[in-house]
Design brief:
By secondary structure, the chain is α+β, with helices and mostly antiparallel strands. The protein has 5 helices and 6 strands, in the order ααβββαβββαα. The chain has 2 domains: 110 residues; 142 residues, 2-Layer Sandwich (Beta-Lactamase), CATH 3.30.450. It has a 6-stranded antiparallel sheet, sandwiched between helices. α1 runs antiparallel to α2, α1 packs parallel to α4 and α2 runs antiparallel to α4. It is rod-shaped.
């Protein structure tokens, strides 16, 4: 700032100086003081300019910061919107995956049901396609081998008093190697014979659930007119057959219900010389 005290007039004239000398001294003092004031004004102007430049720089920084904050705010809003959209898409994908999983499960169930129905249809036709005992027995073996994947099989029939199970047919194992099983209602051992006994006595299908358990792979009861008639033992499965499932159990149920009836019908026809009954005899039996 300009020093106000420096604005005072020229020094007091010397009394003995000439007017010209006093004039020159006044002018010199005046111009010298004007030059000093000009220098001070220039310096102050430079200071103001520097201050203005600093303020402009600061203002520019503030404007940049404000613009940056605005851009950041816009980016945050965009990120939030995209995150919301991502969550919505993930939710949609999850819903579609859930529906797809349900469809796959339902399709698998339907496929299993169709396979079971097809097997049962074929098995029923096979069981009753012949009235010759050897053919019926062969059909039973074929059903177990082709539809279940059984490799070795033994078929047992109970004696009239139900005290023994006698092997009557086999596949994949010599019939002579199969022993008669004495039915002991108190047997609790885990042997094949004990499992056959339990299956015959309880009428419950047995399926081996783990490789830790000993053979057989399965035992199927045979019943006729709701009475126990025997049992089928599946000793082993083909190498490509890893385990037994619901479709196999459905076939076992069919064999339990119809295999003995097919054998009995074939036996009745065979022992009756294969003659078809007369209408009169059937009428008497039906009345």
């Amino acid at each position: 700032m300009i020093d106000k005290s420096a604005r005072a007039g020229p020094p007091v004239d010397q009394p003995n100086a000439s007017p010209a000398h006093q004039r020159d001294a006044f002018l010199n003092s005046f111009f010298r003081r004007g030059a000093e004031l000009t220098d001070e004004l220039v310096r102050e102007n430079e200071l103001y300019r520097e201050r203005i430049a600093g303020l402009e720089k600061e203002n520019t920084s503030l404007r940049t910061a404000v613009a940056s904050n605005s851009a950041i705010h816009d980016l945050l809003v965009t990120i939030e919107r995209l995150e919301s959209e991502k969550q919505r898409l993930l939710s949609t994908v999850h819903e579609h995956e859930t529906l797809s999983s349900r469809f796959r499960e339902r399709f698998h169930e339907a496929e299993t049901e169709l396979e079971s129905l097809a097997n049962l249809h074929v098995a029923t036709q096979q069981l009753h396609s012949s009235l010759q005992v050897p053919s019926v027995m062969q059909n039973i073996m074929d059903l177990l081998g082709q539809l279940v994947g059984a490799e070795s099989i033994g078929v047992y029939f109970a004696t009239t008093d139900g005290t023994e199970l006698i092997p009557i047919a086999s596949a994949g194992v010599e019939l002579s190697s199969l022993a008669t099983i004495a039915v002991n209602r108190e047997t609790v051992s885990p042997s094949t014979e004990a499992i056959l006994e339990r299956t015959y006595l309880t009428g419950q299908i047995y399926i081996r659930e783990s490789s830790v358990e000993s053979p057989p792979e399965a035992c199927v009861p045979l019943s006729f007119q709701k009475k126990a008639a025997g049992a089928i033992a599946v000793y082993s499965l083909l190498p490509q057959k890893r385990c037994l499932g619901p479709v196999d159990r459905a076939l076992f149920d069919l064999l339990d219900a119809q295999a003995t009836a097919a054998l009995v019908a074939a036996y009745a026809v065979t022992t009756g010389h294969g003659l078809t009954p007369s209408p009169e005899s059937l009428r008497k039996l039906c009345s």
